[in-house]
Each structure stands twice: as structure tokens, then as C-alpha cells.
Design brief:
10 strands, TIM Barrel, 341 residues, 15% strand, alpha/beta
């Protein structure tokens, strides 16, 4: 397993991590992802550790805490072997203070996550989204206090826009507080908007990208085919899909090239799609979800080899989409190097 440094930190993490949104199936949305119980979770953890995957990603909102509880039980007795990443921000109840990034909510959310996970510290603590109601200074001071207390080792964010992240980094620098070293983002061959603003920011500011839904909700897993109905048991069809719809022409054009490269490399379509991501700038880690052992083992095969530069270029061309302003304008002047790709 390859390990990479997470942003401008000293933390080394594996290029693959295991995501636990499939644990518990506590409501209709998350049941579409999966309903892994404790026994199966322990088996999946075993497989990950055997492969060198020691980072496990969860969130308090996954099945309203049930995923954290199951992960904590699955890791019992093995805490010193692993890294745990969890998140807060989204609503945990209908209470007026039970969401967001206020000091009140974050301190309580962190303690609740520690209790559910059965641990005394969280290795990477993410804000799951940006809370524009709360002053950035309040949020970052609370996160710095969590780091100083030892409850959190590193802080990261997720689903921020460029100005959200840059303002936060500036405030942290001004006050000497802990800064975001990672950004968990939606990025895949069919959704490349991350490259427009957030990738150049990550390169400039030392923020590593942790990719969620790297197979675009399963659409790049090899089961979505031209001229065929979407699989009835897919996350998309069962109401658990995330991310924007994309034109069939774009999706299946990418799948056609993935098929060609899978044949050339003797890998699966999913493994090729994941390997392409691992060669992108700033990408530090891919969060893999799996409902069962077969899916997990297949996805683990995305590492230990690399597409050639020519094969990467073919996928780049198949997945290219016109950028919005000002990014199309910046690309007219490549000598200024305002864009990365």
C-alpha cells in the first residue's frame, strides 16, 4: 500500500481508505448505501488491514451515529493500529443548536463521536460542510481548542468552496491556530469541477484532497452500460445517489474508454477509474465504500500499478467538459499558469 503525506502536515495516510456510510442502514437514504452490521464490519476491517488500509472514514450523520458505533465496535482492541476520520456539521436532530459549526455544537459533537467510537481521540476531524451563519473565527478557535486538548490530531474540511477554504486558512494563519490540512471533495471522471478552483488552491496552500464517491455513486463501477437500464439494486436507483446528473453521452463515452483500458491493463473498469484519480494533482486518498467483501477486494486492486501517460490522456479527453467562467478564460492564456489542468 502506498502512503502519502496529507497536505502541509506530517501525517502519512494510505492512498485508499475505507468509508463507513454503508454501516448500519439507519434510515431509507443510508439503507440504499448498505446495512453492514458489526460482524460484517469486523470482517471488512480485517481485509483492509491485511491490505495496508489503516484509515477508516465515518461521520456523525451517517445513520445518526450508528455508523460510528459500529465502526468503534469493529475496531475494538485495534485502535493503535488505525487512523479514524469523522465529521460534524450536518443536523443530528431538530434542535436549533444541533447542527452547524458553532463552538457549542462542535464541542458537543466531538465528545459524542468519541463516545460512539469508543476512543479518546480522532485523528482527522472534518467539518462536513461550511456554516456561513457562524463566524469563521469562532469555528476555528473551537477546532484549535479540540486539537490543544488532545481530542483531535488534525483538522480538515469537506464540501467547501474556494473562498470558504481560503478565508479559513487565512484566519488560522493570522491567529496561529490549527489549519485545515485536508479537504474531502467530490471528484471523479464524470465530475471534474474540483479541478477548476479547489485543486489549484490545494496545490498553493498545501491542502490534500481526500476523494469521496470516486466512482460517482457506482456509475463508474462497470455496471452502467449504454442501451441498458440502470441496475435496479444500484445506489442511484434506490434513492441513495449523490451528485448531479450527467448526460448519457458523457457517461457512456467515458465508460467506453474505461472498457478499452480495462482490457489493455487486465483490470476492472472500477480499478481503472480509481487509478486515474490517484494520478491527479493534490489527490492524497480515495474513500472506498463497499457493501460486501467482494466489492472491497475489487476496489483494493486499484493500487500497485499505474496507467500509462497515454492511457491517462485518453481518459482526460473522454471526460473533458467545458469549464465555466472565469476558468475558460484563464485557459486561453496557459503561459500565466492560472489553471492546473
Amino acid at each position: 500500500m502506498e502512503y502519502r503525506q496529507l497536505g502541509a502536515s506530517g501525517l502519512q495516510i494510505p492512498v485508499l481508505s475505507f468509508g463507513t456510510a454503508t454501516f448500519g442502514g439507519g434510515n431509507e437514504f443510508f439503507r440504499a448505501w448498505g446495512n453492514t452490521d458489526v460482524a460484517e464490519a469486523r470482517r471488512l476491517v480485517d481485509i483492509c488491514l491485511e491490505a495496508g488500509v489503516n484509515l477508516f472514514d465515518t461521520a456523525n450523520v451517517y445513520s445518526r451515529g450508528l455508523a460510528e458505533e459500529i465502526l468503534g465496535q469493529a475496531l475494538e482492541g485495534r485502535r493503535n493500529e488505525v487512523l479514524i476520520s469523522t465529521k460534524a456539521t450536518f443536523p443530528m436532530s431538530d434542535g436549533p443548536n444541533d447542527f452547524g459549526s458553532s463552538r457549542l455544537h462542535l464541542l458537543k459533537a466531538c465528545d459524542d463521536s468519541l463516545r460512539r467510537l469508543g476512543t479518546d481521540h480522532i485523528d482527522i476531524y472534518h467539518l462536513h460542510g461550511f456554516d456561513a451563519r457562524t463566524p469563521v473565527q469562532e469555528t476555528l478557535r473551537a477546532l484549535d481548542d479540540l486539537v490543544q486538548s488532545g481530542k483531535v490530531r488534525y483538522i480538515a474540511c469537506s464540501n467547501f468552496s474556494g473562498w470558504h477554504l481560503m478565508k479559513s486558512l487565512s484566519v488560522s494563519e493570522r491567529h496561529g491556530w490549527a489549519r485545515y490540512v485536508g479537504h474531502q471533495v467530490y471528484y471523479s471522471l464524470i465530475n471534474r469541477e474540483y479541478e477548476w478552483e479547489l485543486m489549484p488552491l490545494g496545490l498553493d496552500q498545501g491542502v490534500g484532497a481526500i476523494i469521496w464517491s470516486p466512482l460517482a455513486g457506482g456509475r463508474l463501477g462497470g455496471r452502467f452500460r449504454r442501451g441498458q437500464p440502470a441496475p435496479a439494486d444500484s445506489r442511484q436507483q434506490q434513492g441513495g445517489g449523490q451528485g448531479p446528473d450527467v448526460p448519457d453521452e458523457l457517461l457512456f463515452g467515458i465508460v467506453d474508454v474505461l472498457d478499452e483500458l480495462a482490457a489493455e491493463t487486465e483490470k476492472t473498469v472500477a480499478q481503472v477509474a480509481l487509478n486515474w484519480l490517484l494520478q491527479r494533482p493534490t489527490v492524497t486518498n480515495l474513500v472506498l465504500g463497499a457493501r460486501n467483501e467482494e466489492q472491497l477486494r475489487q476496489n483494493l486492486g486499484a493500487v500497485g500499478w499505474n496507467l500509462t501517460s497515454e492511457q491517462v490522456a485518453r481518459l482526460d479527453a473522454a471526460s473533458a467538459t467545458p469549464p465555466i467562467y472565469p476558468y475558460w478564460h484563464q485557459r486561453n492564456f496557459p503561459m500565466l499558469k492560472a489553471s492546473v489542468v
